[in-house]
Amino acid sequence: MDLFVRDHDSWGKGVIKKCKVSPDAFVQMALQLAYYKENKKFVQTYEASMTRLYLNGRTETVRSCTIEATEFVRAMVENSVSTEEKIRLLKRACAKHQTLYRDAMSGKGVDRHLFALYVTCKGLKYESEFLTNVLMRPWTLSTSQTPHTQLDYSPDADLEVFRNKISPGGGFGPVSDDGYGVSYIFPNNSKIFFHVSSKKSCASTNSERFVKTLEESMDEMKALFGL
């Protein structure tokens, strides 16, 4: 396992909020940009969403690699696109991501529904080419924001005296042989922790390199707003 843990302490969600976008959506768009920079392609991306509004609710999938996200990424790597247009596309992509996240939390996601149909088909010994095709595709980017409740019993992370005493939380491994597992948490307004994992057996992945590309992408996105 190739694991790299990064304490991104130069800025955090306090700066992202000045961009008038969701911090989670901002990081998800940065992940899309970073992966595209390194691989020149888009891949299926998983973000876990909680379904705690429901009794015994667990998770639903947010598919972060949307059409809006890809259009933003393509604009970011194209020098001829104006800063104003890049900002517009970023805000549109973040708004789409927020909508998908809220839908997932409120029972309007599609993945658990499709999985239930898949399990039913298996029980009936019926083979669905559609369901098999959709559900067996690899999640090259598997991502999750660590719940902030993990810090409920920690000191106030925004107080200077405690900033170097915050736990970075935990991470998880990649679910694809050639992919990444990305866990992150916003412990306060000025810091982001990243856990990025990949398989050492894969020649095309490198967790430390990916984190550096991710941070570069975040800085480029922040710079659009003159911050």
TrEMBL record:
It is found in: Membrane. Its main location: membrane. One of its GO terms (molecular function) is carnitine O-palmitoyltransferase activity. Residues 4-216 form the Choline/carnitine acyltransferase domain. GO terms for biological process: carnitine metabolic process; fatty acid metabolic process. It is a multi-pass membrane protein. One of its GO terms (cellular component) is mitochondrion. The keyword Transmembrane applies. Keywords: Acyltransferase, Fatty acid metabolism, Lipid metabolism, Membrane, Transferase, Transmembrane, Transmembrane helix. PANTHER family: CARNITINE O-ACYLTRANSFERASE, CHOLINE_CARNITINE ACYLTRANSFERASE DOMAIN-CONTAINING PROTEIN. Belongs to the carnitine/choline acetyltransferase family. This is Putative carnitine o-acyltransferase crot. It comes from Rhipicephalus microplus.
